[in-house]
Amino acid sequence: MQQPHIFTVYGLNTEVRQVLEQGFGSIWLVGEISNFAAPSSGHWYFTLKDERAQIRAAMFRNANQRVRIRPQHGMQVLVRAKLTVYEPRGDYQLIIEHMEDAGAGLLQQKYEQLKAKLQAEGLFDPAHKQPLPESIKKVGVITSPTGAAVRDILAVLKRRDPSVEVIIYPSAVQGQAATGELLHMLQRAISRNEVDALIMARGGGSLEDLWCFNDEQLAYALHSCPIPTISAVGHEVDFTICDFVADVRAPTPSAAAELVSRDQRETLQRISHLAHRVEQAWARYFRQYQQHQQHLAMRLQQQHPQRQLQQNNQRLDELSARVQLAMRRLLQQQQRQQTQLASRLSTVHPERRLAPLQQQQQQLKQRLQLAMSQLLKQQRQRFQSLSQGLHMVSPLQTIERGYAVVRKADGAVVRNPAELATGEAFQVKVAAGDFKAVKTE
């Protein structure tokens, strides 16, 4: 029985390389560049892809020096290459001999079109974005539960702030089913409303690898999410639609974990710094308090009742001396005024004028008595003369001679009998008295 040929791994890769190189030779290929890298050696390494597959490619320095275009991520190119196998890893790849621009890649075109549409609709508007909470106690992560992204996030949170609780919403992050799962997990996180912030994370990859994060429906759901969201998809140079729609974009999953956590070392340093500031503030306050107490003690000493009493006593003594001096001056002034008044009074004293006034008074008294006697005598004589004249013409004198005076009831004198009516009463006055009478005719 013939023994089978046993290959080594390297030998098998060598055989495969020879078969590929001899079987295909130089081929022309259209594809989109992804994961382009140009190290210092001058060689180019990238991936050529379309919507359904990808292949590694390399273009060494002696060939790429003749290329007129500068390859970049997303560029559609036409290349002439040889198919070979990179034996150490067993990867089959293209060795590019010629490259020219074949237009923008289909995926990149779709990406740009969707980006422009959503931007026009306002999904990227910064005014709509929510700030992250100041204190995050619970964070949700939508990602593959077995991927490197979730391990990086958990490692950072454990190192920085182990108190942050993490809830994993498991989802595929690559392939056709990934879009639906991401959308479903986002809706579940919204309905549960159990986290303070939500991270959508995945490690780096090509545009095809990250294409599930460029879905239009996922963008709308992320835009309407009431929970603050962080997009941490790919590496720092990778951008997806979710990066533009989310409230915050983190360059890597680890950076997203840092955004939702506080470094304990920083917290301890801040606490130490605050404690030092409190100590300094307390020392400053204590110095100010001592200075204030010294100031109050000095003011109290200046305003102490005993000191005030001493000042008042001194002031009283000064005022007493001023009062005594003023009293002496006033007394002296009064004495001088009294002396002046006494001198003036002595010149006009009544006793000096009393004797002449008494003599004048006696003379005036005698003249007054003489004048009164003469006036009284004259008045008596005049009275007697008038009395005699009046007696001569008095009605009473006439009545004494037998006449009578007739008066009406109202006192009017009746001079003519016709003035009285028949039956009218009247009064008659005679020397011996009065009587009433009535006229008969």
How would you describe this structure to a colleague?
With 441 residues, this protein is an alpha/beta fold. Among the domains are: 9-102, OB fold (Dihydrolipoamide Acetyltransferase, E2P), CATH 2.40.50.140; 122-265, Rossmann fold (3-Layer(aba) Sandwich), CATH 3.40.50.261; 399-439, no CATH class. It is built from 12 helices and 13 strands. The strands form 3 sheets. A 5-stranded mixed beta barrel has the order 1-2-3-5-4. Helix 4 (148-160) packs parallel to helix 8 (253-259) and helix 5 runs parallel beside helix 6. The longest helix has 44 residues, at 350-393. It is an enzyme of class 3 (hydrolase). Residues 309-381 form a coiled coil. This is Exodeoxyribonuclease 7 large subunit. Bidirectionally degrades single-stranded DNA into large acid-insoluble oligonucleotides, which are then degraded further into small acid-soluble oligonucleotides.
